[in-house]
Design a protein that fits this description.
- The complex is a heterotrimer of chains A (300), B (556) and C (137).
- Chain A is an alpha/beta fold and 300 residues long.
- Chain A has helices spanning 3-12, 16-27, 31-38, 42-47, 61-74, 103-106, 129-138, 154-161, 201-211, 227-243, 246-278, 285-298, and strands at 49-54, 79-85, 94-96, 111-117, 143-148, 164-169, 190-193, 215-218.
- Chain A has a 7-stranded parallel beta sheet with strand order 4-2-5-1-6-7-8, sandwiched between helices.
- The radius of gyration of chain A is 21 Å and the shape is globular.
- With 556 residues, chain B is α/β, with parallel strands linked by helices.
- A 5-stranded parallel beta sheet of chain B has the order 1-10-9-8-7. Chain B has a 5-stranded parallel beta sheet with strand order 2-3-4-5-6, with helices on one face.
- In chain B, helix 4 (92-104) packs parallel to helix 6 and helix 13 (291-313) packs across helix 16 (405-427).
- The longest helix of chain B is centred in the middle third of the chain and has 23 residues, at 291-313.
- Strand 3 of chain A pairs parallel with strand 2 (34-37) of chain C, so a sheet runs across the interface.
Chain lengths: 300, 556, 137
Amino acid sequence: MTGLDRLLREVHAGNPRSVARAITLVEDGLEQGTAILASLDRQRLARALVVGITGPVGAGKSTLTGRLVRFFLDQGERLGIVAVDPSSPFSGGALLGDRVRMMTQATDDRVLIRSMATRGRLGGLCTAAGAAVRIMAAAGYRLILVETVGVGQSEWDVARLADITLVVLAPGFGDDIQAMKAGLLEVADLLVINKADLPGARKLLLELQGMAEKDVLETSAVRDEGIGRLGQRILELEQELRRTNRLEEGRRQARESEALDWLLERLREPLARLVREEGAAGCDPRITAERLLERIGALG
Amino acid sequence: MTEDRKTAHPAVISWEENELAAALARFPERRPRFIRHGGEEIPRLALPDHPDDRYLESVGFPGRFPFTRGVQPTMYRGRLWTMRQYAGFSTAAATNERFRFLLDQGQTGLSVAFDLPTQIGYDSDDPLALGEVGRVGVAIDTLADMEILFANIPLDRISTSMTINAPAMILLAMYVVVAEKQGVKASRLRGTIQNDILKEYVARGTYIFPPGPSLRLITDIFRWCAAEAPRFNTISISGYHIREAGSTAAQEVAFTLANGLAYVQTALDAGLDLDRFAPRLAFFFSASSDLLEEVAKFRAARRLWARLMRERFNPADPRSMMLRFHTQTGGSTLTAQQIDNNIVRVTIQALAAVLGGTQSLHTNSRDEALSLPAEDSVRTALRTQQIIAHESGVAETVDPLAGSYYVEQLTDTIEEEARGLIDEIDGQGGVVSCIENGFIASRIGEAAYTYQQEIEQGERIIVGVNSYQAEEATHLSLHRIDPAVEEEQKARLAEVKAGRDQARVRAVLAALDRAARAESEDLMEPVLAAVRAYASVGEICGVLRRVFGEYRERQW
Amino acid sequence: MRQRYRVLIGKPGLDGHDRGARFIARALRDAGFEVIYTGIRRTPEEIAAAAVQEDVAAVGLSSMSGAHLRLFPAVAEALARAGAADIPILGGGIIPDEDRPLLEQAGISGIYTPGTPVDTIVQAFREACERHYRGRQ
């Protein structure tokens, strides 16, 4: 048995070290990573549920995630969590601190947390996030939560990857819903008002109910309130999506989108080299691009 | 009194006839006259010949708003600052012995440090306490330990400062009960509990519960002490740890005062009378090595606090606007290399604190970077204060650096910067929000990072560390806690637990649980009852943990 | 795609003085590492579980309150139990010279006390990670 076969077997056996290793292989763009992805248990992937959690900084996402984990564990689930933080544009390094609020649960072997850095990708998730999710699913972590920091355009990435997207808000974040980022409310399958015990929660609830034709739920992660309701709603929504085939449709779109991302990522270096070789001196960049497209097209 | 009353400014005369006269009536200055070696009299307060409006408004007089020059009209001419050195080792018995040594050496107040399990609400037999019992301070599990700690120390005659935060209510309750057993009523107790949970979340790390319930505990302490122990300081709003975590001087002022304002607001929301608890608020700052910046920082802090209190709460009693503080010389400035250099550092820092008008002072020992200090190092640290007090002359006149162009400018700048930060915190919803969203922690972290990088790059010189090194072996050694200490402590705890009225303990813990769940019930009385029944710190905190939950930090 | 060195920085035990650990975490980030910072008040089991799940190439532990003799080896043991004895451990903080041999025996491969230039520490992590990744091939 090759090393790769052994790794695959251990991933499917749910060995956390092997799962972690496999994710690293994909993240680092190594061949073995791709080989592993090709051999993942498809049934487990189909059975899994991916829940995205996004929203503005300070809404209490990490704490809420921690509470949801506990709820789902009580329901008998095994959980994977992918927590994504931005890489420094200067050094390429990253500080990944999301797991802090969930660490006591991570010693439960039904939970596996992976922190990932965006590694230059601007969309809020890293390219390998989807792969990480699939590897976790194949390892038997049926429910996978993907959590991101919620700045920039990150909510779109999450919404594409996840079957169900939660947008977590909290009262007191600029009182004006109109000031809220365009798109944030659109991507949500469920809107969550966390810190619902604070003043302004009622107002926010009414505003959201008025604007969006979506479920709005209230929680207080710190006080452990509303979590059960939220968890149940997620599971109900999952059933609806499966029944109506929307889950599979959503995944098809996600797969296409991710394939495009990988393609763009792999092409970036070679294309950059072409641009350099073409020499940009004195030429309008638009023209440089057109010229290169012709050359590439000419190659068939 | 001024020599020529005809030409003295009316404000000066008014100050002399009011604040100063009242202070002198309460207690006279230490000497009838303060005379220099050549025979000339040392002025109580050096003043500009013609104080202008700007002077009167911003600099003013000690004991008069905005208190830039000090909170007390005669300052150290009336009473020297309290010389208060920490002590706290391993067992209550050993600490008791060190206390009695220090009291004999002329120390005027006691200061208690607790071990980490006690500070975080775990008993000495808890698995998480393994290896930590008695390490950084004394282990207190039950009232029995507290009784040993203060054996033969008359609690009505000394003042005790306890560095305890999250479980402060429990330790205070124990102190009160020990006094009770000595026949000393709570109304006679003097001292301080640090009890400042907000800074724990961003700088010191010994929190237990989330901010909301923690503020509730603090409010209950305020209320109880205002009624039963009015001479006890119920909070020491701390900037020291914020500075030690790497903040700038202006940030130290800003975040400390912001926390202070939050406590004031919490107390008011709970229905307390501003002028009854505000005068008892005390602060705690660091004294770092930039002498002039530190002096300016202390003056700026006093002035800013007074102004903010007036603007936001408008107290009737001027004492509600006085920023009284304890200072500790900055531990993080001390080096493990060439430790005698630390004596010099501490001297400069102590001088800064005195020139800045501190009410009490702890000076670090030279070996502080290495371990819990040895007895002779502790003595030298105390002597440092005594030499400043009696030989340097700076205590013979009030706020001597007032009027220095540089110091006044720096005072203004720090005040302005601090005020700006406080406004920013308000804009984000207050300190609790800024704790939870990481604003305060990230500012401190950036300042710490910058500072350390400056040292690494050689832009900031630390003598003996990145320059002027000596060929010496740096011996980091630790005060080794005898592992027997942990065993003894656990044994004592077991003994106390076995000898208790178990039914009573169960009953008091159940009552505490009920009171904690009922959101508006007082918790001090249930905790007192629990303590009297010899319930342990871990048991009491266990109940509260289950009701309040535990806080988990947000990172960056 | 370029590989990034992933490391974990954590503080075992009850001590909350994390200024030094935070500084090292930031310095490593600025040197291009992906740093999983696990915060204060961690048990050895939590640190080991995190190191395994995050597939780090090195673990950095900090102790300022003297609990290193018990806690650093406890982390090494927890890593071994989790099948990750091959992850190098670097230790920092207030650690007296006479404790070094014991810690080294327990599996701590480098000890860095206050006053050590940060570049030295970053380099030590880099080398530890390089060795570890080479060992994987």
